[in-house]
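Worked example 4.2. Below are the chains of a multi-component assembly; read each line carefully before continuing.
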Amino acid sequence: MGEFELIRRHFQRQRPARADVPLGIGDDCALLAPAPGQQLAVSTDMLVEGRHFLSTVDPAALGHKALAVNLSDLAAMGAEPLGFTLALALPQVDDAWLASFAQGLFALADTHGCELVGGDTTRGPLNLCLTVMGQVPPGLALRRAAALAGDDIYVSGTLGDARLALEVFRGGVALDAAAFTRVRERMERPTPRLALGLALRGVAHAAADISDGLSGDLAHILAASGVGATLHAPAVLQATSADLRGTGNPRALEYALTGGDDYELVFTAPSARRDAVAQAAIQAGVDVTRIGQIDAAPGLRLLDAQGREQALPGRAFDHFA
Amino acid sequence: MGEFELIRRHFQRQRPARADVPLGIGDDCALLAPAPGQQLAVSTDMLVEGRHFLSTVDPAALGHKALAVNLSDLAAMGAEPLGFTLALALPQVDDAWLASFAQGLFALADTHGCELVGGDTTRGPLNLCLTVMGQVPPGLALRRAAALAGDDIYVSGTLGDARLALEVFRGGVALDAAAFTRVRERMERPTPRLALGLALRGVAHAAADISDGLSGDLAHILAASGVGATLHAPAVLQATSADLRGTGNPRALEYALTGGDDYELVFTAPSARRDAVAQAAIQAGVDVTRIGQIDAAPGLRLLDAQGREQALPGRAFDHFA
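Applying the procedure described above to all two chains together yields the following structure tokens:
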């Protein structure tokens, strides 16, 4: 089977479903027509076997995750998905693998109306590169540089579950089967918080998605905004799942702060907008937890239940550390 | 050196130069603002060591080529470049390699005012994935499906030089040093025909870039348009360089038809627009050669100087063949 046949078989669907994708996969370029006056938000992520996923991963879960981590970047920008491109290097053509991968990929894409508009395939060590495109009205994007001293800091959902699953895989932590199934699902099929990102337009100041760990991704907001932050450890722990807290794991706080692969949002909003944040969370159907404040003084501080500063555990994940 | 430091050092430049890139590299997404009413053209390409380039390649040439092959897709669409994303998997952090790669990349990017707006880096087997974005007014994109029976078929520049260089590398063909330098340059630093693509808006019907070989890429136009074509072998040979023809290489025609890596344009235009095509070529500063016609009958035919049908040599390159 040739390269073009391979593409057609698994990835070329009917004509684009979206009216704002006048030309989809199969030409030199795809054509997109963002709504008049909207800006285009673009993000790219590359996933490598052994680094971003295990060789044993279910290909459907991988298809889901490869797109989810990209959609998560649109969510963090408050952008609405339009379409994405997919480039694949494959060590060999495995029909069953591709069918399963495509099923996981398209299930998530269809949930969010995000169209596959172009791609490339080649032989090589397994590598997936997706570039996602969305739209956002001028001035409403949630930029990392927009945090202001006095802002509240929030996170969506729960933190540290993906790290917990990884530790179970590594044999360092034991978990009952039901809990393992849940945290493994969180690691392999993260939920991009697109509805929350949209609902936070005009409410939140700065936002980022938590891919490398809360403390590391918050640090990017702080650096871009020229501010610092104080986090409250009990509040951070409140933003963890019962699966993580319930184990009595002494490293639950560390997993929440540095675990990585959460794909939740960390965002800041003025304290006068607490009701609006709560409304946005309800509208998006996801819990948010207020975990601290933005300070004028640079640096990231962590306070315990008694308000005493405690050391920040661990460090954010770095693909070249 | 951490991942973020690596990115900043080599790829993060001053604030975006383009006014229509309100937010460049460094946030969850970049923001682009295409001109009002224009459509967005998007293409992605993945390059793998040993498949698309040799391990011995000059990193500056690789930086050039990685972007050139993507810009070539915009050219084939008649689109004007806006920006691109770059995802890189690297086996290790090699500062000198990255500096040279970035130099080659940015030299070409700056020539065409195409801004690096986002990226990703990770450790892994060497892999480059670029996604390029451009803009084109609605209705003016040069689509593969737009060829009509009776259209002339043209190619830009010269064909087969990259293949000739590859054969010299492989030891199958001998070439004097000056000629080898020229054809190697053609292989390693292809010229995306962006000015020609723009000049052909409203003149050409269908277009594609020649990445896999003239006959294969023309076949995509024929399939998409539901037509056939007749090529004239002497005219195809006329669209080769003196370096290829001059060697008396008996496979010159085969290299021109199936060589690959040419990154010239193949396009069709009504015969009533021959003057306009000639004007577009002058405006773009590149030769174009008329090599045949589009037929209503499907299939691709090749005629010799006496008008007799001859067999099509070789086949187009397929990354999974």
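Take a moment to check your reading of the output against the notes. Chain B has two domains: 3-136, 144-310. The longest helix of chain B spans residues 59-77.
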